[in-house]
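Please predict the structure of the following assembly.
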Amino acid sequence: MTINEIAEMAGVSRATVSRYLNQGYVSQEKRERIREAIEKTGYQPSSQAQTLRTKKTKLVGVILPKISSDTVSRMVAGISDVLSKRGYQLLLANTNNDTEEELKYLNLFKDNQVDGILFIATIFSPRHKKILKEYRVPVVILGQRLDGFSCVYQDDYHAAMQITERMLKSGRIPAYIGVTDRDEAAGLNRRKGFAAALEAAGVPLRPELMVEGDFSIESGQEKMKELLAIEPKLDCVFCATDNVAVGAAAYLKEAGKSIPGDVQIVGTGDTPIGRYVTPRITTVHFFYKTSGMEAASMLIEQMEDDRAVTKELKMGFEIMENGSTISG
Amino acid sequence: MTINEIAEMAGVSRATVSRYLNQGYVSQEKRERIREAIEKTGYQPSSQAQTLRTKKTKLVGVILPKISSDTVSRMVAGISDVLSKRGYQLLLANTNNDTEEELKYLNLFKDNQVDGILFIATIFSPRHKKILKEYRVPVVILGQRLDGFSCVYQDDYHAAMQITERMLKSGRIPAYIGVTDRDEAAGLNRRKGFAAALEAAGVPLRPELMVEGDFSIESGQEKMKELLAIEPKLDCVFCATDNVAVGAAAYLKEAGKSIPGDVQIVGTGDTPIGRYVTPRITTVHFFYKTSGMEAASMLIEQMEDDRAVTKELKMGFEIMENGSTISG
DNA sequence: ACACGATATGAGAACGATATCATATTTGAA
DNA sequence: TTCAAATATGATATCGTTCTCATATCGTGT
């Protein structure tokens, strides 16, 4: 089915059918005949031909590090809801946390192909920045802040600070299991928030009790073991993610420590896995799905209004203790 | 940048550039000049124009019920790996478990737009079947079996049967928390497997101890409460998913029961959340990511070879007890 | 020397839509 | 009544590719 066949069936020119489809002037009479023809045939315009002419693909590229992660998939759920409501479709690029893959997709989407990009980022290299600078379609970065770009991110610094403060109410010897500082959001900012809370509380920061792992449960177990070997008397641990916290808790139990009696554990992210270990992990709830929705809305604004200016959106959070909100 | 500009820079016709890009006859000399021009300009062919001409979009539509689910996102990770390796891109449609949304996307993708569909299905209505029958592009169904269609699914029946057998080694009064039979895989087949194991073991099946919930943790808690009210002496429970099992376990603990001392709990799916509750849930490991990869490969075969015949692939499983494999 | 297949090239049509332009016809305000 | 604006329509060009076809050159076996 093409627009030509519809035009013929309805006895009008193809230009009129096009006008019908794009709210131009069409008389009641022809409008009705066209409607009928389309209904009968189930005609759908070829999006490729439309794109070729209009340069609008109605496609949004979503580049992400790992789809099978609770955090990321919640963001994508939010993104998907907003995009589909606004008539956009979602082109998914799963990079498996591989920089080369990220750059590959960033390049692939560069010229044509998509009207805009949502980039769920972890670590920015100079090459990322270079490509992003040259971009012709709007980009919104999700999960990290980057100067000069529209972005939506979590308030990692204050979240880490507040939950650490809370932990220090009864903790005396704090430890820290984090991730690389190259991940500004989850690494650097959380670490700084942790350090700020210690300073404010007048608790000495012992660098040997701050270790770096990755985002996995296994990493939490392993690093907890290291920490406990260094300082058997530590009595509270901040973990950069809930996964890590679950791993750390698992090791402590194994080592015969009671939680939170002997050692307090706090996490970040409020992921489902943290919600059903016993005792329940004290954590920070981030609004991942909402941030996905916000980022998508922001992108749509930029795609549809070329005067739209870049924006930064820092999302709030909630401290969760034993399953309920303590503070915002 | 268009093919015309490249042609001009290289001093050849646009047909020659096209041949260069599609491995036709081009002399060494011109080949070199074209390569240079492309390199200098960073030219990338417009995929829309290509599609318009060739009718190949190199796009695969993936329709799924809920991206923020461990099971589904693992399948998508597998799908994504295979597709991107073979030069396809992934158009994601998240239906939020809404039949109308499923049908909407099934219709949207019908005519043009994608070269093939991967449909991660839960419940088939007659309308689904009607649309699928009329499909012109290849479809592979993931997670369910459907007569006459290519599909990849788990061996839910035997998985449920074997894990139930295991549970009955020490269990005497079994209960069952499942999901609707309209979900053939997770509902009907697991229920039948459970029933078959009871029959084989000569344990009477008490219909009042078989209840139906949904896939959530909350549902597990609630249904466990109901069951315990009906039969306080029940000593083992089969749960159709790990989420449900975690919920059931949480309620039992609350009710002062010890696991597995007083009541054994088994789940299905080996999801991360089941791996870190204490005691660890006995469950069935399904190869979700692998099944996504298999489904994607199957679809590619069907898209690229029109003589390809429909196939069914039933995936194996492993029983996991305390974190290690017991049987296959 | 000839013929034939392989190699090499470009002109022009086609894919299915929208945009531009020219041209009627109908309104409605002065 | 008149004339400009609003409404209505179709012919034709165009988007950036690939495909078909016509044509030319080259190598090689007879």
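The mean pLDDT of chain A is 94. The radius of gyration of chain A is 25 Å.
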